[in-house]
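Example for tutorial group B:
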């Protein structure tokens, strides 16, 4: 306990003590996100829900930032919380040759850095593929329509009922790919039993009530902050998402 506290305060002290260049200071923003980097190495972030953006809720958080080259790290002393997935493989007798899957999805909620609950959650959308990415299904609890005119149409929807079981055509399964809101990238699970025809998938999605960024990287270049991630990475190249523009001090 003492060592953990000492390590924490050492990290905080190093954040305050770092030398930074003035051009990094100030507020960066677009229509939905505002990031303010202050000279005392603290920040304030206003953004749409980073886990469930379809709710259109806005969260405000603050903390410490650290400069590493052209990259700012928000709260470098906090490890990222990543989704956890387990798969139970079974060979069962059925009247057809289909592959069946059952989904159990839980939210693991944290408040002020302490776990306060874990409970079942009716996810909005969960994508699963067998073997290859093109062999996918989008799992929903009710038909999924566009949230706005700019959002893509959701193809290959499978509506599940209270059993949370759905199926794929029969085939030998070597791996499963799972992706949902709050994932940085697709999580692939290797299958050990090539004869398995039923899979019970458990997803645990960690969630901070405050939506506090944890070791969140932001690339700063030419007065712009590249904040948004795609497939678990942030790019400042030509194919990156629109950056946050420097709005002044």
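The residue assignment follows.
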């Amino acid at each position: 306990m003492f060592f953990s506290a000492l390590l924490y305060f050492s990290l905080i002290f190093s954040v305050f003590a770092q030398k930074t260049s003035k051009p990094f200071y100030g507020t960066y923003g677009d229509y939905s996100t505002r990031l303010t980097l202050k000279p005392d190495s603290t920040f304030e972030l206003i953004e749409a829900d980073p886990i469930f953006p379809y709710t259109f809720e806005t969260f405000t958080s603050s903390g410490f930032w650290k400069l590493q080259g052209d990259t700012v790290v928000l709260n470098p002393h906090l490890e990222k919380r990543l989704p956890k997935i387990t798969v139970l493989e079974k060979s069962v007798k059925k009247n057809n040759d289909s592959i069946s899957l059952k989904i159990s999805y839980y939210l693991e909620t944290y408040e002020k850095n302490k776990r306060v609950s874990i409970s079942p959650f009716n996810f909005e959308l969960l994508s699963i593929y067998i073997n290859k990415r093109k062999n996918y299904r989008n799992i929903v609890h009710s038909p999924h329509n566009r949230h706005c005119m700019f959002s893509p149409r959701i193809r290959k929807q499978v509506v599940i009922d209270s059993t949370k079981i759905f199926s794929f055509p029969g085939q030998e399964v070597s791996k499963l790919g799972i992706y949902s809101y709050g994932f940085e990238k697709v999580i692939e699970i290797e299958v050990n039993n090539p004869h398995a025809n039923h899979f019970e998938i458990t997803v645990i999605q960690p969630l901070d009530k405050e939506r506090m960024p944890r070791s969140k990287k932001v690339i700063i270049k030419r007065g712009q902050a590249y904040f948004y991630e795609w497939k678990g990475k942030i790019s400042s190249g030509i194919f990156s998402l629109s950056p946050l523009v420097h709005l002044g001090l």
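Confidence is low (pLDDT under 50) at residues 1-21. Compare this with the pattern of hydrophobic and polar residues in the output above.
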